[in-house]
Design a protein that fits this description.
The chain is mainly β. The strands form 2 sheets. It has a 4-stranded antiparallel β-sheet with strand order 1-2-7-6, with no helix packed on it. Strands 3-4-5 form a 3-stranded antiparallel β-sheet, with no helix packed on it. It contains 2 helices and 7 strands; from the N terminus they run βαββββββα. The protein has helices at residues 45-50, 132-135; strands at 35-40, 64-70, 80-83, 87-91, 96-100, 105-115, 120-127. β3 (80-83) and β4 form a beta hairpin. The chain starts with 34 loop residues before the first strand and ends with a helix. It has one domain: Immunoglobulin-like.
Length: 137
């Protein structure tokens, strides 16, 4: 068994380290907020009444992931949100959430809005799958 590495003193390759592990901080005393993940798909009358596009209610046919995070006693200006292709990292002065996403997402096309009356941050992310151009064309 031989490890191919540029530096002989390294004990693992960068490909072996999962994405988002640099955010893990087990010593951080902030609590994890409550959150809910749901999936959203865009359907039209051809889907609902005729079933012409072949979409079904499974998550494999959903285009977006919607994450609702409860942040009581938090101001919009206190929220730091970082989204990678497979990881959502949220930090506030009192809460911290590191969430490994169920599907890879397009991190450049996400939307977030803070519902101040409900104290909920709603993040909508577009799912990025390899063969979506075949499934949803």
């Amino acid at each position: 068994f031989q490890v191919k590495s540029e530096n002989k003193k390294t004990i693992w390759n960068t490909e072996e380290v999962p994405e988002g592990s640099e955010f893990d901080d087990t010593w951080d005393p902030r609590e994890k907020p409550e959150y809910e993940i749901s999936f959203k798909q865009h359907v039209g009358t051809e889907d609902v009444f005729f079933g012409m596009t072949g979409k079904d209610p499974s998550t494999a046919c959903c285009e977006d992931i919607v994450i609702k995070i409860k942040l009581p006693e938090t101001k919009y200006s206190d929220i730091t949100l970082d989204i990678q292709d497979k990881v959502l990292d949220l930090r506030t002065p009192k809460k911290k959430l590191l969430l490994h996403l169920p599907y890879p997402v397009n991190s450049k096309e996400g939307k977030a809005r803070f519902l101040s009356e409900e104290e909920i941050l709603e993040v909508t992310l577009r799912v990025s799958r390899k063969f979506d151009f075949i499934n949803f064309s």
